[in-house]
Every structure is written in C-alpha cells, then in structure tokens.
Amino acid sequence: MEFNRDQAQIIIEKGIQKENPILVEIESKDLLSAYGIPVHSTMEYTPELSFKSSCTLRRLAWSLDMPMTKAIEKVFEYLPEILDNKKICQACRDRSKCSDCEFNFQARIHDENERR
Question: What gap in Å lies between CA 66 and CA 73, rounded to an integer?
C-alpha cells in the first residue's frame, strides 16, 4: 500500500481553510486514495442542465411517467442508436472504459450475443 502524505496534508489543509470545513465527495475520495485506500471512482463534476434543458427533461419524464433521473438514463440509452458511434469513439479521451461504453459497437454486439 502506497501513502502520499504530502497530498493528504494538502487536502486536509484546504479543507480546514474552507468556510464550511467539510470535504465534498471527491475531496474525501482523494484523501482516502492518498492514504492508499481504494475508492470507487466518480466523475470529477456533475454537469448542470440549462433551464430550457431541464424543462425539456421534465416534460419527457412526465410523458414516460418516471422521475427525471430515470428519463435522462433512457435518453442516454437511446443516443448510441442515433449518433455516429465511430466518430464518438475516435474523439474519446478515455480508452480505459471501451469495453463498457455504449458507443463501442463491438462491445454492444458482444453483450447482445451473451443475452441470447
């Protein structure tokens, strides 16, 4: 197990200096990682929707009779069916998740064959 005490100290000092000295999720995970404790990775940020997009999503959710969080998942499930998968794969900056990516056509074919 590797420790990075310098990194841990920086995270702690920044946390103490905040007006509300509570670490947010990513800071907490960074601190655990600095002490060699494995953590489940998350996105660095959660994108915010514009007011217009939020209204559109709300209407979509109403029509599907489901919460907005579920409705947006349905949208993301549908996107690989209508977008240029090859173009998306070529522009991708994270090759570590290709086997799980919905835009990876070969992985989708493999998953569909396994379900049969």
Answer: 11
> Does the pLDDT value for residue 12 go beyond 80?
yes
pLDDT of 87 reads 92
DSSP string for residues in 38-97? ------S--PPPPHHHHHHHHHHHHHHTS-HHHHHHHHHHHHHHHS-HHHHHHH-S-GGG
Q: Could you tell me the CA-to-CA distances from 113 to 28, 59, 74, 80, 104 in Å, in that order?
A: 40, 35, 22, 17, 15
Write down the pTM of the prediction. 0.50
Q: Is the confidence at residue 44, as pLDDT, over 90? A: no
Boundaries of every domain in the chain: 83-116
What 3-state class would DSSP assign to 1?
Answer: coil
Mean of per-residue pLDDT scores for the chain:
84
CA distance 90 to 112: 23
Distances (CA, A) of 74 to 46, 57, 61, 64, 109: 18, 11, 10, 10, 19
